[in-house]
């Protein structure tokens, strides 16, 4: 069968006249390298296939690209796409290092082991072995391999080529979810004391980061909490099976790339719980579908504190590579004109620090926080002026203990602390709204304290993408403020604005925003 034509823009890929059954796997190649595997959708009325790009890839597409699509190992379509007039050939590689990237099973842009130096996998496994020893020695926790690090070795003794990390887990001795959470917090403190950089996804999922440069990560290790409760086995974040059907202990050695790592007593049982009964059959398009009963329990017991953090980090890396925006936001300019001289300002969701720098250059002291690690790393090196007028700090505003830490940090700034939040509430989850508004309420208890807030309420911000935030319902926002004895005043509407993407291009967006001053209600 001859290859069919394809066309593409920054939103979608269209294959003309390709007879591909719905649900079959399609591999997308960029300049001959496989970057994404996806299930074929239903054909359009004219017989063509329209495949939306994942948002993480869509926001990065620029210039031209030589694309091809394979089905069943055969090329069925090929063509050159022109995404914009920027020129140059699009290259999906990691900013700062040039390491080739792919779209992983989460729809994120990430590295994979495929085509990489074998020494990288050895390094990952060396660190996994060391971590196993550290937690056994310091916390009495027995880690074992799980997920993809179990799946590949059970199939053929080796890590899968398209994987990009190592998955480890432990079985908690606790059966009450509250005790399980407290145990996980103790483990996190232990790991931090041992020098690890830890990111918490949920109360049952920790990620240990191994940076490869200022804004890049060499790799990471996952630690998942498994536990039993009322006769059910729970394998964070997805599995829920009757406890008697998943046997983990006693752990037994498992060959992984020529070395022996601890594995579960019955690997096949755990793999069936995680991936389903067809786990033995390779499926490059596999995605997790969490049963509703499991999702409800995981959300209310363990919650989720890492909404879109990885996507924001990818976005910031691309923005750094393309040329960061250095101009301050309109909100920062307006706030500066209203602040008393030499004010202390808490910049929530500071990103790459353009607003923080603007405030500091005008004599204010700024505590700038974000949860994007590459954004903060870049800002510390490129934005922070001499004299310590800006301090950059990582904080996750969905976590109450991080918000409490920020209250302590603000108390150390001496004097009244004002708040700047530029479109922050367009990016936060409902849990983040509550945690942040509680923090703002406490800070506004100081006489003269002000909170300068801008929210996008309509227009092109209707996408679920992290690049174009969710619009805020204005009535709901006011109701949420009232819950915390807060009120918005001085509510001018600001008109259309520009969004500069990670490649230095300006993309027009019609965004209606409300710029407000939040204060505490009297009485």
Describe the structure in your own words.
- The protein folds into three domains: 89 residues, Immunoglobulin-like (Sandwich); 185 residues, 2-Layer Sandwich (Beta Polymerase, domain 2); 202 residues, 3-Layer(aba) Sandwich (Rossmann fold).
- Helix content is 29%, strand content 29%.
- Helix 9 links the parallel strand 19 and strand 20.
- Helix 7 packs parallel to helix 10.
- The longest helix is centred in the first third of the chain and has 22 residues.
- It is globular and about 65 Å long.
- About 4% of the residues have low confidence.
Overall pLDDT, averaged?
A: 88
Classify the fold: give the CATH topology of the largest domain.
Rossmann fold
CATH architectural category of the largest domain: 3-Layer(aba) Sandwich
Categorize the overall geometry. Answer: globular
- What's the story with the biggest beta sheet? 8 strands, mixed
Helical segment tally? 13
Unreliable runs: 460-465, 496-510
Please identify the top-level CATH class of the largest domain: Alpha Beta
Integer count of domains: 3
Q: What structural class do you assign from the helix and strand content?
A: alpha+beta
The counted number of beta strands is 28
Rg from Cα:
25 Å
CATH superfamily of the largest domain: Vaccinia Virus protein VP39
Percent range of helical residues: 25-40%
